[in-house]
Design goal:
single chain, six-stranded parallel beta sheet, Rossmann fold, seven-stranded parallel beta sheet, 2 domains, alpha/beta, 13 strands
Length: 387
């Protein structure tokens, strides 16, 4: 089957959505499908060859699928994502595609015109964060189009998110839950802690807590800093964030006079296993202020599991669809600093106990690889007569 994956954000980049798209396309290709990714070229690259050549540096893999770069025009000087849709539809006409796959809500408005079945992968309940009016419009369009024969399936990245979209009006038989996953080969075998620290030039005799992810204000970075103040005997390394975000949090670190918090910045995705491997404790962090939190399926959770390190994180419902506190992780009440500090203290006490990290690693290897995820999606499509 020839699958056309339509994505409207710039490619390549280190944004989480682009990383996820690459892994899904790679997994479909590994399962014998022909894949073509349609995406606009990132403005940082002068030409298509430069963009393609940088993929291996960023992600540590060669892409086993074709990339078609589409023009990304603006509408009225704005709406850049919507502006790429026409170029994508034109590009699709020149390829013999059996199925279109997308996670972009704007694209769904026009996919019935492509005259091939499509799958929309839902990652959030609020599909437009900037405008309540556009959010309502897009959501209604997605629901209405889901009832048409052209919509083969709506993939929700958690069971919780599928229930939300069913409440919105998507037919139950069109919904399939499929959590995000991990490319296990990037973590196979898991790196030794001492080797990781040596390669990163990290020297510490104190327990090392590593957080990898966004530094946006709604992620709970303030809670991490408060925990660092409560637990000064732990060293905290935060991997990710823009230069502007890092400056904001460095100023807060200075205000709090914290000597045990370090900002790494963004790193190529291929280096993530190295940083995770250096940890005694891997800290996940979100708050109820994150717009996607009710139905999220964060890639970092599965990468943490693959790294075979002790995981500490907030017990949001969709997180608990995957992790079980006391069995493969230590989860705490979200937005509760006292509970978070208690969980970190428990993790320190259990830092030499391999049972939880081993259980997490076994679970992710058996259930949550990208290949397993895409195999599940292909099986669901086959049951609907698309193969």
């Amino acid at each position: 089957m020839h699958i056309g994956f339509v994505h409207s954000n710039e490619f390549p980049s280190l944004e989480a959505d682009v990383v996820q798209v690459i892994q899904v396309c790679r997994a479909f290709a590994a399962l014998g499908q022909e894949i073509t990714l349609f995406a606009p070229r990132a403005e940082a690259y002068p030409d298509e060859a430069a963009a393609r050549n940088d993929v291996s540096r960023l992600f540590g893999v060669d892409l086993p699928f074709e990339i078609v770069f589409v023009p990304r025009n603006t509408l009225f000087g704005r709406l850049r994502v919507l502006g790429s849709v026409r170029g994508t539809l034109n590009a699709l006409k020149h390829c013999k595609i059996d199925l279109i796959y997308t996670r972009n809500p704007w694209t769904v408005l026009f996919l019935p015109k492509a005259r091939v079945p499509y799958v929309f992968e839902a990652h959030e309940e609020r599909v437009h964060l900037g405008s309540a009016l556009l959010n309502a419009y897009l959501r209604r369009a997605i629901v209405n189009n889901s009832r048409k024969p052209s919509c083969a399936m709506i993939v929700g990245i958690s069971a919780a998110l599928c229930r939300i979209w069913e409440d919105f009006g998507v037919p139950h038989d069109k919904l399939v839950a499929a959590h995000d996953g991990v490319n296990l080969s990037l973590f196979d075998p898991p790196l030794a802690k001492d080797e990781s620290r040596k390669r990163l030039a990290i020297k510490t005799d104190r327990p090392l807590v590593i957080y990898a992810g966004s530094l946006k204000k709604d992620r709970g970075i303030d809670l991490i800093l408060s925990a660092a103040r409560e637990l000064p005997d732990l060293n905290y390394y935060l991997v990710g964030g823009t230069d502007e975000e890092i400056l904001i949090w460095k100023n807060e670190v200075a205000r709090l006079r914290l000597a045990n918090v370090h900002f790494v910045g963004r790193v190529p995705h291929r280096e993530i296993p190295l940083w995770l491997g250096a940890a005694d404790i891997l800290l996940m962090m979100w708050t109820w202020r994150v717009p996607t939190i009710r139905g999220c399926s964060p890639m970092k959770m599965f990468e943490y599991m693959a790294a075979q390190r002790l995981i500490v994180g907030p017990a949001f419902p969709s997180i608990q669809e995957v992790l079980e506190s006391g069995e493969d992780s230590i989860l705490f009440e979200p937005d509760n600093l006292t509970a978070m500090v208690s969980a970190l203290n428990e993790a320190v006490k259990r830092s030499n106990d391999p049972s939880l990290p081993l259980a997490a690693r076994q679970k992710v290897a058996e259930q949550y690889t990208w290949d397993a995820r895409c195999r599940h999606i292909l099986e669901e499509l086959s049951q609907r007569g698309i193969r």
